[in-house]
Amino acid sequence: MNHGASESKLPAWAPSGGGEGFATRIVAAVPDSADSVVCTRKGAARHIDVAGLEKRITTGDRVALAQAITLVESRTEQHRVLADELIDRLTPRSQPSIRIGISGVPGAGKSTFIDSLGLNLVRLGRRLAVLSVDPSSPVSGGSILADKTRMDRLAREAGVFIRPSPSGGLLGGVARRTREVIGLCEAAGYDTIIVETVGVGQSEVVVRSMVDCFVLLTIAGTGDELQGMKKGILELAHLVVVNKADGENRVRAESAALELERALRYLDAKGEDEKPKVRTCSALTGEGVAEIWLAVEACIDRARRRGDFDRIRRSQNVSWMNDLLLQLLADRCESNKQLRSMRAAIESEVAEGRVSARRAARMVVDEMITGWRDECRDEAHNRDALFGKKRGVGVADLP
Ligand SMILES: Nc1nc2c(ncn2[C@@H]2O[C@H](COP(=O)(O)OP(=O)(O)O)[C@@H](O)[C@H]2O)c(=O)[nH]1
Ligand SMILES: [Mg+2]
User: What is the pTM for the complete model shown?
Assistant: First the structure.
């Protein structure tokens, strides 16, 4: 499979006259069918050249980056193995970056805001990747570098990479992959990562756990709306921005900002320094957007001075690993046929009170461990037969 740039084409919505200079392209997706990729690393390399992909990504090839993201997002086991390998190769190459989360209800103006902010960042010489975590965003036709995202101006910039959510993704799954996609973008040399997420509750919490600065974008509503904004969400924010402060709406936006500031004064357990700041802007006219960026930088500087920046990143990495660990166990419980049928049988025993829940959970874990050990042994046998005992865990190494 050759994913050369020649296979990419302009999206249907590209402005006429944009020509070859238009940065956004549609590229073919990594096929999802199991037989398109041979299971072993050696075999699979014939189809997806992980080393080649790594090289292209680190030399700034956006088509390669898009393909890598599609690979990471794929649900097939074969792709998972290759994605693991690619991530292992790229992790040491990650560049220092800042990660910003931008959340808000649909229509608050997030995409318009990112378009405007992004142009400022490009002028400042930053290389920007925009990722969106929006399970409802419609995407079609394979992997697309930017859909109709209201980021048309940004999408033309050479130093910008825009990636909407994969279609049909469940929130948990989309966000889980986003963490890895951030890493890919950093390895590709993007120094500023913006994650756009729809404010529907859970997604904010997930995105908050992967960024350095979390911005909540809101609009002046009926007043009730502000009151109804969940305290929990406000507490997540480093910065609250009241958008659409333009035209007739300007006064309302400014009074909404004052009201928010008052509400935030009573947030407990945070020093003055750490309380969310409130700003207004107009993403449409661009007024106030540069100041928002200064506020983001100030927030990151404060964190650095407190020694929080690195500490929080480290703890985000660790909790990320722990999330993955639980996810691996849960996936195993669901995907392994033997475990599934054993669980079904034992569930009815528990339901009838014949076996305690505690004992049953223990039995499932024992079964899981036994099954895993057998599989590892088989896998090691196969590997030894294929490659000899030179690398990896040999049969003799297993307990
Ligand atoms: N008047 C005004 N309209 C805006 C502003 N920002 C966004 N909009 C409009 O609000 C609508 C939703 O914007 P969009 O960026 O798609 O919101 P998102 O769903 O939060 O990404 C669009 O019609 C925008 O043109 C702003 O600052 N002022
Ligand atoms: Mg949007």
Answer: 0.79
